[in-house]
UniProtKB/TrEMBL annotation:
Family classification: Belongs to the glycosyltransferase 47 family.
Protein name: EGF-like domain-containing protein
Disulfide bonding pattern of the chain: C69-C79, C88-C97
GO cellular component: Golgi membrane
Length: 571
């Protein structure tokens, strides 16, 4: 007797959603909670207040004055008018968000949102949680969820329906899509992915802050048919492969552009130590074979012999982006007294009387290294930093004019007085190459087969010293040789001011170099993506040769003095 009602419900749902979504709803597990929950609970249902059985098609006009969702949706939720999806805050559920979630279900949602194994429900549903772009003053922030005013929708309430019946960005404001490409279409995934997240628990906020900057930068477009790139805003920090798979599956079943491009020109951020190695699986590799990963880890050759590190970066398709250095760390690293700031009267490199400096962890177990013996760390099979830190300490800790120590009481002062500073690997990617460059100390990078941020599109040999791991014993000879050539040394130092701009997200944090943010890490990421779009078959190392505008950007030159970039290639 129960079979007939169940079949009728399934038949009704199949009319309201694409068949692949129906299959996914029946079979999938965990998307936020589940892909099905993203549709039913965190994202409502298709059809809403539209015609029964009518599938919403992104970009097609809605009937003027008619909401695509139930009239009750906007009381507690937000109607995505483009999709006819009623989006709910973390503590509500149902096709119109009118039902409060029970305690067991809310606990599970809060766990998935990174509020801990025994989540504090009060903290999880706190009104003090921050929201993307503060909802653009088109809604109120509730539990990290933008409760948009009726007619507005999106993770930051930026979207609405324009006079032509198509999605519009920040109507009533001065917002326009910038002329400078690339233009990026941002997929509006269910709030279970984009808003039900405790960002205070994320130690690396790059994904969240990059997304917010993208939404408001002028690079965002709502016209997916003319977009240069597509951005999938899904949290990837560690072993989140299930989130990636289910986010992509949702995108494939909801919008046409993944299928049209085969996943090409789709960008996803991963902030883990080892990049996509942390979520690697045959499924992920196959599904994202044409997609572009934006990660902090540029290992493009295997290092299994020393560290069990597999190749994680494809230079022709992926981009290494800088680690986000938050404003809270600026004082710790001395950025508030930055020698490259104009207040130093253009003399950031005077008084540097120390040839080489490094202070930081040497051994993987954080214990002090032994002196005069190898191995100098007692931990068995210590592959931390691919043994770079251990070898540098062993060969150079007692060398004249070198400082190689686990700790420094005045870290910022050491950076300001040093000519060269080690920027090593850690448990994977490092961040010292960014810190030392911003303080006017030439980075010394050691890591065979590991690209630095924006490399090879950005030529790091112009402002850093790249030393092969086999040359660590003679590193002092290499550095002394450069220091003995004042013109070469000064040229490298002078290029640091531009390079540091590419490494810092100053359009997000504000500047410590008195720059405008025109060439910051966010804009540099977009510029590399633009070149990838225009020259899909080129070696990234050749972008500066092929494109005068790209070269000028990477040199922080006046873009008005060079030819504009070429028009976009046809899809």
């Amino acid at each position: 007797m129960l079979l007939r009602p169940l079949l009728l419900l399934l038949l009704l749902f199949s009319l309201l959603a694409p068949s692949r979504v129906l299959c996914h709803v029946l079979q999938s597990h965990q998307f936020g909670r589940t892909a099905a929950a993203a549709l039913r609970e965190g994202g409502g249902d298709y059809g809403g207040g539209g015609e029964p059985g009518q599938q919403r098609v992104p970009g097609h006009a809605l009937r003027p004055g008619r909401s695509a969702c139930s009239s009750l949706c906007t009381e507690h939720g937000v109607c995505n008018e483009e999709l006819g999806r009623c989006d709910c805050p973390i503590n509500r559920t149902g096709a119109d968000c009118m039902q409060l979630v029970g305690v067991p279900e809310l606990q599970q949602r809060c766990r998935d949102a990174l509020f801990g194994d025994s989540p504090d429900l009060q903290a999880c549903t706190s009104a003090s949680a921050s929201c993307s772009n503060q909802c653009n003053r088109r809604g109120s922030c509730r539990h990290g969820f933008c409760h948009c005013q009726p007619g507005f929708y999106g993770m930051d309430c930026a979207l609405s329906t324009g006079p032509d019946g198509k999605p519009a960005l920040l109507q009533g404001s001065s917002y326009v899509v910038r002329k400078k490409r690339p233009h990026v279409y941002v997929y509006e995934l269910p709030p279970s992915v984009t808003q039900w997240v405790n960002y205070k628990r994320l130690d690396r906020p790059t994904h969240n802050l990059f997304t917010q900057r993208l939404l408001s930068s002028g690079a965002r477009t709502v016209d997916g048919d003319t977009a240069d790139w597509y951005f999938i805003s899904v949290r990837c920090r560690m072993a989140d492969s299930h989130l990636v798979l289910q986010a992509i599956e949702y995108v494939r079943n909801t919008w046409p552009w993944w299928n049209q491009t085969g996943g090409a020109r789709h960008a996803i951020i991963h902030t883990g130590d080892l990049g996509v190695q942390e979520i690697r699986s045959p499924e992920v590799d196959q599904l994202t074979r044409n997609a572009t990963w934006l990660t902090h880890w540029g290992l493009h050759t295997s290092k299994r012999d020393c560290c069990a590190w597999s190749t994680a970066h494809r230079p022709e398709r992926d981009v290494v982006i800088p680690v986000f250095i938050s404003a809270g760390h600026f004082k710790h690293f001395g950025f508030d007294n930055n020698p490259m700031h104009p207040k130093f009267n253009g003399k950031p490199f005077e008084g540097r009387d120390q040839l080489f400096f490094f202070a930081g962890r040497i051994c993987g177990d954080r214990k002090e290294p032994d002196v005069g013996v190898w191995p100098n760390c007692r931990m068995k099979n210590d592959a931390y930093s691919a043994t770079v830190r251990q070898k540098v300490h062993y060969h150079h800790h007692n060398r004249t004019n070198f400082t190689v120590v686990p700790h420094a009481s005045a870290y910022d002062k050491e950076l300001r007085r040093s000519i060269f500073c080690l920027a090593p690997l850690g448990g994977g990617h490092g961040q010292r190459q960014i810190i030392v460059a911003a303080m006017g100390c030439i980075p010394v990078t050691i890591g065979d087969g590991v690209y630095q941020p924006f490399e090879p599109s950005l030529d790091w040999t112009l402002f850093s010293v790249q030393i092969a791991e086999a040359d660590i014993p003679r590193m002092h000879e290499i550095l002394e040789g450069i220091a003995s050539r004042p013109n070469d040394l000064r040229a490298m130092q002078q290029r640091l001011h531009c390079a540091a701009q590419h490494m810092l997200y100053s359009s997000i944090t504000g500047s410590v170099l008195a720059d405008s943010g025109k060439y910051d890490a966010f804009e540099s990421t977009l510029e590399v993506l633009r070149a990838m779009r225009d020259y899909p078959d080129a070696n990234p190392a050749d972008y500066a040769t092929l494109d005068a505008s790209f070269r000028a950007f990477m040199e922080c030159a006046d873009l008005g003095a060079v030819a504009p970039p070429p028009p976009p290639r046809p899809p």
